[in-house]
Structure formats: C-alpha cells, structure tokens
C-alpha cells in the first residue's frame, strides 16, 4: 500500500492477478482513469501492456507504490518474466520536462500515465536472458528506483538505478542537476550503479587524495583480485520530500554493506576522509558511487532506516549472529 493521508492499496492474488483501490488522482492505480475507487478493481483486466503480458502467461509478483501524502504518486509492478511496468505521475517536483524520469520510459507530452506501461529504458539495459528479480525505491515525492537482476547468461547479477539524483542516490557518479528534455532523458536514463573502494586509505595523501582508489561497475576488471562482491539481495533507503538527505544501502549475500547518497553528516563509512569522518570525497557528505562499509562488526543480514521526512539518517541492522546494531 502507498501510505500517507490519501492511500492507494494493491493486492496480488495467488494466480498473479493485480487488484487496486483507493486514491487515484495521478492514475497510479493503473485503471485507465483518475477516479478514486471504493472497492477493489482488477488492474490486470484493463487494456495495457501489463494486461497483454499477463494474458500471455506472465504473473505479477511484486507491486511498489511511492509518493505518500504528496502529489507525486507512482506505482511499479514486477512480473515473473523479470520485467517492470509503471504508471502514475510522470515528472519530478524539482524540475520540469522530466518526461518519464521516474517511470523508466519516455513520455512525449509529460502527462500522467493511467495504465501500466513497460519500463523500456530499464529493459534495454538487460543482457541475454537477464531478468529483474526484485524492485526497490527510495520512496518519497521524487523517488529513485533500483532493480536487482539475476545476471543472465553471464551469471553476473547487477543493480540498476533510475529517477531522482538530487542527493547523488543514483550511485553512478553523474551530475545531480542533469535533467531530461523533450527529446532525451540525459543523465537520468537508467544505468548500472558503480562502486568505489577509496584504495589504500592508510596511505591517503595531504588534501584527501586516495592512493590505488578503485572505481567501476561491480564486474569491472578494475576489481579483479581486489574486492570480492556477493550477489546483491536488497537496496534500502529513507526518503520523504525531494529536499531530504537520502542515504542508500545495498546488501549482498556475503553480508557486506555498500553506502551511496547523502549521509547528512552521519557517515556509516566513518573513515574514507581522515580529516573529517562524516565526509566521503573532499568536503562532501555524499558518495557519488557505492562505498563498502569496512568497519561493520560482522556480516549484516538486514537493515532498515528508523526515520523519514527529515534530514537525519538513523538505522538499525541485524547481524548474522542475531545481534542488533544501531547507528546514525
């Protein structure tokens, strides 16, 4: 369910059908209208690319709604074929002309989308036989979205991101101000997240310059024999308003945490900058790429943020031993 003062509710049946009811002012229910619904309506019975896929045998396995009490409501659906569909508000509240920035497909007139269309810009990134296995979002009025894939024939599972980047939460070392136009998505187009190790931090030079720093995508040759990645299993974040600081954490099946986005001076990674333990690069509290949390006491199996709608990042984590950790 999409929370807040005007909620929308979704239900998936055992046969993979999708029903929805509640608030529908941005077309976020996917019923080809903007009429609030008092009783459940079958979304997968409404003519749309999602219905076409389901009629051909696809099943809905996950639904995710964002926006809360704000006016920027969107909904996303994942099917067992490994594809994502989206509907609802098209643009972002922080800039005009986004034309599908958050939905993952281009919209020529920037009008709200009232049926579920395939996120084709995400699909275009998939390699041979690669499927999306899970769907995640920062939530909030200007959400950033993430999917984890199974890696396809290469057996290299990846994390892809798209949407808002005001706090560098895309994790791809791209401009926070890049915006879409009527003809292109610019830097907001979906892409694979990147990682950064900060190299030999014990040898950091004057001014914070790292030595042997490694950057790149998860399976970049830069990391060969330098860092071992597990399979990503979750992407966790906290977000409410577009102006809020936004920290994003990726968890892999080795229990390793990777942090990106803005930590609001409460860095989970507390020593990439020796002169200021709240900073990542220079004087920034934001990580342009995802950074390993070197000082975690043991493998972490789950993590959540404790606060939303303000500029503080506080979290609770569960270790493999069952120990609960808090910070922020």
Q: Quick check: average pLDDT?
A: 85
- What distance lies between the first and last C-alpha atoms, to the nearest angstrom? 28 Å
Helix fraction bin: under 10%
Structural class label: mainly beta
Ranges where pLDDT stays below 50 over 5 or more residues in a row are: 93-97
Please provide the ordered H/E string of secondary-structure elements: EEEHEEEEHEEEEEEEEEEEEE
Largest sheet: 4 strands, antiparallel
Oligomer: single chain
Q: How big a fraction of the residues is strand?
A: 25-35%
| Beta strand count | 20
Tertiary shape = globular
Measured on Cα atoms, how large is the radius of gyration?
20 Å
> What's the helix count?
2
**For the largest beta sheet, what order do the strands appear in spatially?**
4-5-6-7
Brief synopsis:
The protein has two helices and 20 strands. The chain has 328 residues and is mostly beta strands. Strand 5 and strand 6 form a beta hairpin.
């Amino acid at each position: 369910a999409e929370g807040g003062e005007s909620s929308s509710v979704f239900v998936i049946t055992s046969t993979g059908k999708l029903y929805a009811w509640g608030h529908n002012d941005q077309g976020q229910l996917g019923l080809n209208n903007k009429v609030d619904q008092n009783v459940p309506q079958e979304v997968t019975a409404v003519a749309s690319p999602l219905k076409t896929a389901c009629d051909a045998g696809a099943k809905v396995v996950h639904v995710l709604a964002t926006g809360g009490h704000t006016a920027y409501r969107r909904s996303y659906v994942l099917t067992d074929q490994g594809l994502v569909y989206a509907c609802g508000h098209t643009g972002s509240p922080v800039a005009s002309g986004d034309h599908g920035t958050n939905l993952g497909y281009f919209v020529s007139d920037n009008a709200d989308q009232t049926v579920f269309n395939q996120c084709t810009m995400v699909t275009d990134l998939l390699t041979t036989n690669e499927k999306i296995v899970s769907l995640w979002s920062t939530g909030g009025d200007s959400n950033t979205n993430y999917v984890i894939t199974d890696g396809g024939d290469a057996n290299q599972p990846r994390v892809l991101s798209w949407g808002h980047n005001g706090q560098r939460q895309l994790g791809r070392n791209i401009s926070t101000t890049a915006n879409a136009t009527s003809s292109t998505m610019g830097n907001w187009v979906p892409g694979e997240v990147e990682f950064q190790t900060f190299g030999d931090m014990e040898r950091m030079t004057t001014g914070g310059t790292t030595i042997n720093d490694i950057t790149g995508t998860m399976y970049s040759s830069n990391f060969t024999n330098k860092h071992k990645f597990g399979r990503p299993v979750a992407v966790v974040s906290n977000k409410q308003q577009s102006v809020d600081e936004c920290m994003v954490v990726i968890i892999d099946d080795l229990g390793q945490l990777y942090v990106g986005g803005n930590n609001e001076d409460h860095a989970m990674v507390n020593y990439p900058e020796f002169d200021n333990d709240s900073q990542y690069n220079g004087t920034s509290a934001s990580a342009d790429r995802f950074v390993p949390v070197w000082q975690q006491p043991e493998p972490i199996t789950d993590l959540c943020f404790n606060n939303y709608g303000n500029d503080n990042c506080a979290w609770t984590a569960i270790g493999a031993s069952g120990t609960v950790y808090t910070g922020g």
